[in-house]
Write a structure and sequence with these properties.
The chain has 236 residues and is α+β, with helices and mostly antiparallel strands. The protein has two domains: 84 residues, Elongation Factor Tu (Ef-tu), domain 3 (Beta Barrel), CATH 2.40.30; 144 residues, Threonyl-trna Synthetase, Chain A, domain 2 (Threonyl-tRNA Synthetase, Chain A, domain 2, 2-Layer Sandwich), CATH 3.30.980.10. The protein is built from three helices and 15 strands. The strands form four sheets. Strands 2-3-7-6-5-8 form a six-stranded antiparallel beta barrel. A four-stranded antiparallel β-sheet has the order 9-10-15-14. β2 and β3 form a beta hairpin. α1 crosses α2. The longest helix has 25 residues. The chain is elongated.
Length: 236
Amino acid sequence: METRLLYMDDSYAREFDAKAIESGENWVSLDQTAFYPRGGGLPCDTGILQWDSGKARIIRVLKEEGTVRHYLEEGTIPVGTRVYGIIDWDRRYRVMRTHTGLHVLIAVLNKMLGVLVTGNQIGLEESRVDVNLEKPDRGIVEQAISEANKVFEKGIEVRIYYMPREKAMKIPGIVKLAKALPPSVDTLRIVEIPGVDIQADGGPHVRNTSEVGEIVFLRLKNKGKNNRRIYFKINP
């Protein structure tokens, strides 16, 4: 039985009810969850699971063979137990803001320079994105970040919908990864910021670009031939 991923349709779901479908020492899988499992360069959610006879802190969440495993700080939750999940919302919301901000920054860099993404990692204090940029030009990167910040100020609605894979893959710019394609599934989840970006993506996002705030450039690092790492954070 696969876990239903509630965040795919509602990134703002902070609390939810579910049932344990698999369990082991210090972990449990649920029939549905709002916890985001680590992946795609995003950290997993943390939070709490409560049930009639106890409560446990969730310290790690991973997707394994269709189900999502929630790793407990300690204890076990028997199969069949009804639980109530509560996400650490401040952490999740910061990741959402950064994730949407990263999509905009990548779109601007792609439009300006035609670059593709070779790696990324979102963090709570700082994040980074690797692009196949030939020259480590700080001025160009700062210009791209300035353009991204203008997009946030416009307050553009972020649209999330689904599309057949075959149709989605015909959209110009739908893939901005240098060495990867979207998962081989019949239907892709599309994240679109009208007039700015459209990508196949499975992570949580904010509803409006105005929620992102501001991207602040931190530093630029050379990561080999035609590969530059851009470090940034969001404010506030």
